[in-house]
Backbone:
């Protein structure tokens, strides 16, 4: 998958993964894809709800060795 | 304005004293709707923290200035962020130390009463999750019933009152919370008792708790009499302590009754549940004080924060004990049941010793309300 930007939010606790995601989203264009790596388990629910309320779309989610990966398309 | 930290014990006092509190819960809407801090005079506003990242100006007029304000999130980080933003805007607010995680783990010991020949019985109210556990103390010896996984709290409490824990019981194999019984028994060198019919798959040694079994605590012989009352699980066992207190496990609650479906056998067990509630309990003295393993709603708390009621009063007030028609009863306890507790299968397997999740995982498995009852 083509990714326009990668955000490393590993080791960060809530609320920082979302704070950083929001900032990174401001730096890409609508339709582009942000890839996020996080380790905070709460990030899954929060990113999903945040993306929904902001009109963004989570197009893929993976978990690998305790690392949560998300691909979000900017709305 | 500076922000202040409020801990779970302080919030519990506000619940018990029916004080006013305005809770700004900044978790997701789903999480808030599923489970929140309950208090009779608490007011709520739920706005996820990620909707406040650009500022709190939009919600300032919704937050009162005449009563205390507590910001709550899952672990505490986001509530500190939001509390600081509100403080920068000139408001005096607190945040909940440790968030809902700490709230779920807080236990408040409440003395229920004295025993006839000396000794006391205490109820440990797990206010955030509605779990109730017990300590019976007599002459330097203690027994614990339905302990939660916060084992150090019981061990510390026993030490503080100078009692040695000799017996640890679980009324049944729990599906809503992880039992601390086995661990406490190991640490204190005590005997761990389980009803054998619930323990067919356990991977550890235990003492079988069977109908009619008497266990004595202390030199003055406080008697714990086991009474087989299946229905919530096939092994569910109640205890009569000192001829006065009926520890009803998950069979009978104050305003509801146990659900028979958490081990997948609702249709098989509904008859047992009926027999336990409508026959075995009915044959007991109406003056027994019922002490259940759960409460479901905050209205079930007495003035002092304890949860108890006389058996006779429950036969008059509890809807689940007043259904004459057996078919109607069967329908009520097997149809339209509330959602099952979070991760209940994994919790059962943990309590059997089949899996050993780490502390963080155990915490996560127990998130949410207990949901062991039907009303």
Residues:
């Amino acid at each position: 998958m083509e990714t326009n930007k990668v955000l490393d939010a590993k080791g960060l606790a809530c609320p920082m993964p979302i704070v950083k995601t929001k900032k990174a989203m401001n730096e890409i264009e609508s339709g582009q894809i942000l890839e996020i790596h996080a380790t905070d388990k709460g990030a899954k629910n929060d990113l999903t709800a945040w993306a929904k309320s902001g009109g963004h779309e989570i197009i893929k989610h993976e978990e690998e060795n305790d690392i949560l990966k998300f691909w979000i398309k900017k709305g | 304005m500076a922000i202040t930290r409020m801990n779970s014990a302080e919030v519990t006092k506000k619940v018990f004293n029916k004080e006013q509190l305005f809770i700004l819960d900044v978790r997701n809407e789903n999480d808030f709707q599923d489970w929140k801090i309950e208090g009779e005079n608490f007011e709520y506003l739920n706005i996820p923290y990620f909707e406040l990242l650009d500022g709190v100006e939009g919600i300032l007029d919704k937050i009162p200035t005449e009563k205390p304000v507590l910001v709550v999130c899952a672990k505490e980080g986001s509530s500190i962020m939001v509390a600081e933003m509100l403080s920068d805007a000139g408001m005096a607010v607190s945040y909940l130390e440790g968030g809902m995680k700490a709230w779920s783990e807080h236990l408040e010991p409440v003395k229920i009463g004295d025993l006839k020949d000396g000794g006391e019985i205490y109820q440990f109210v797990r206010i955030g999750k509605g779990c109730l556990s017990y300590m019976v103390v007599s002459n330097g010896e203690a027994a614990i019933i339905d302990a939660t996984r916060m084992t150090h709290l019981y061990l510390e409490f026993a030490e503080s009152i100078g009692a040695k824990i000799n017996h640890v019981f679980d009324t049944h194999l729990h599906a809503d919370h992880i039992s601390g019984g086995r661990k406490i028994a190991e640490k204190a060198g005590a005997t761990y008792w389980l009803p054998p019919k619930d323990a067919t798959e356990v991977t550890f040694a235990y003492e079988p708790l069977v109908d009619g079994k008497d266990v004595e605590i202390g030199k003055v012989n406080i008697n714990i009499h086991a009474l087989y009352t299946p229905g919530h699980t096939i092994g569910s066992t109640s205890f009569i302590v000192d001829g006065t207190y009926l520890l009803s496990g998950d069979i009978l609650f104050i305003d509801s009754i146990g659900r028979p479906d958490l081990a997948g056998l609702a249709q098989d067990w509904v008859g047992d549940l009926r027999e336990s509630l409508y026959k075995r309990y009915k044959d007991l003295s109406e003056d027994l004080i019922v002490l259940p393993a759960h409460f479901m709603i905050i209205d079930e708390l007495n003035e002092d924060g304890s949860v108890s009621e006389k058996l006779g009063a429950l036969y008059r007030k509890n809807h689940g004990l007043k259904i004459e028609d057996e078919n109607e009863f069967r329908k009520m306890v097997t149809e339209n049941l509330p959602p099952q507790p979070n991760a209940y299968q994994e919790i059962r397997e943990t309590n059997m010793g089949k899996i050993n999740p780490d502390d963080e995982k155990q915490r996560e498995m127990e998130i949410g309300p207990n949901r062991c009852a039907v009303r």
About this structure: The longest helix of chain A spans residues 43-54. Residues 5-73 of chain A form a domain with the Translation Initiation Factor IF3 fold (CATH 3.30.110.40). The first strand of chain A starts at residue 5 and ends at 9.
